[in-house]
Amino acid sequence: MVRFDKPCKQVGAAVKYFRAHMAKKDYLSQGGQVELTWVGEGAKQLGLSGHVRETEFARLCEGKHPVTGARLAARENGPVKRVCYFGQISPPKDVSIAYLVGGDERIAGWWKEAVNDTVKEIEAVTAVRIRKGGVEDQDRYTNKMVAAITATLERKPKGQTHWSTRTLARDLGVSPTLVRQVWQAHQLKPHLEKTFKVSRDPKFLQKLTDVVGLYLHSPERALVLCVDEKSQIQALDRTQPGLPFKKGRCGTMTHDYKRNGTTTLFAALEVLSGKVVGECQKRHRHQEFIGFLQTLDREFPAPLELLLVLDNYGAHKKDKVRAWLARHPRFVLHFIPTSSSWLNLVERWFGEWTRKALRRGVFVSIPDLERAIQAYLESWNEDPKPFVWTATVESIWAKITKRRDVLEKIDPGCTLPKKRKKVASNV
């Protein structure tokens, strides 16, 4: 006999019913409870097997994967959304009595096969979710939607790094349109990837607080300057002239190029106004860095204190640089954490310049490249736009902590500070 009870519309009520009724003894048991097990196509698609735990059942009712906790539904369960149906498949009493009296295990085996066949028939009916209006071509197969989410999150196609709509559709036997709609509903984007790196600086929080404090609460009678150098800027000339863009056609440029040397741009971004001071040098050693500090000394006369935000490049910490800074006490250096160039606002300006003046440029020589750099600096400083920092230390630290926790589960110790190698001394 197959009987379905009324649907549960609240997760708490479903868990309560599970605890009170679904683990009770049935006709085939004697004096003990029966452990529920995962069965059916849905359990197979989600990779579930073995006994059903109460916590796993609660997650499934919430529209989450019972084991991983990943979302399986595009929206949270609302006040009127059904979370589950409870049903019972009971054997005839004479079958139960025959098993209890005779003890024939074949009866139990036949009964389990009958239950599995019944579950498949029920799944065939419940797998189709009819859309509003009952239009046939708008039917959605719920089990295939869950399979698309699970496959996207938990496995990869053979010999490939990520799924496309067509490869996943072919693997599941559904249309690419269904896969695309599932991805859009759940904001799954396996075709995209971003680069990142969690800093292993032991003083990360201390340096982060220092730099963000300068951005959000700049001290009076002082200027905050973000300083960095962009090295190995190539003067590239194309092997053939590019075609200009016109209506219906974009501009073109050859894929190959002629390299005419490199230069290095030293730049300092004034955080308050957005003004940029820059100059080109052949190299980027500590000698050139001291020369750029002298340029800043002339550009921003005393008595203003200059607070420099910069990275941990070795040229910034040479003994001669420290000696120069000791003779010019109004220069105060604030170092960002290692592997955290995103914290230096001048990198944002470098990105603007690269996209708008460098990437599509054609330069026949180094002087030609340096003239183009100077022209962009002059154009920028005619109407400078400051980059406004809004992120707080707390919000940044929360994101970093979250990513560290995930990485530590994958590779324990990968985010801990590196230990310095001891240099063996010759005796």
Give me a quick take on this structure.
By secondary structure, the protein is an alpha/beta fold. The protein folds into 3 domains: 125 residues, no CATH class; 48 residues; 179 residues, 2-Layer Sandwich (Nucleotidyltransferase, domain 5), CATH 3.30.420.
- What CATH architecture of the largest domain would you give? 2-Layer Sandwich
Low-confidence stretches: 25-33
Q: Could you tell me the CATH topology label of the largest domain.
A: Nucleotidyltransferase, domain 5
- Main CATH class of the largest domain: Alpha Beta
Termini separation: 88 Å
* Rg, Cα atoms, Å: 33 Å
Q: Give the number of DSSP strands.
A: 9
Q: Widest sheet: strand order?
A: 7-6-5-8-9
CATH H level, superfamily name of the largest domain: Ribonuclease H-like superfamily/Ribonuclease H
Main beta sheet: strand number and arrangement?
Answer: 5 strands, mixed
Strand content: 5-15%
Percent helix, as a range, is: 40-55%
Shape: elongated
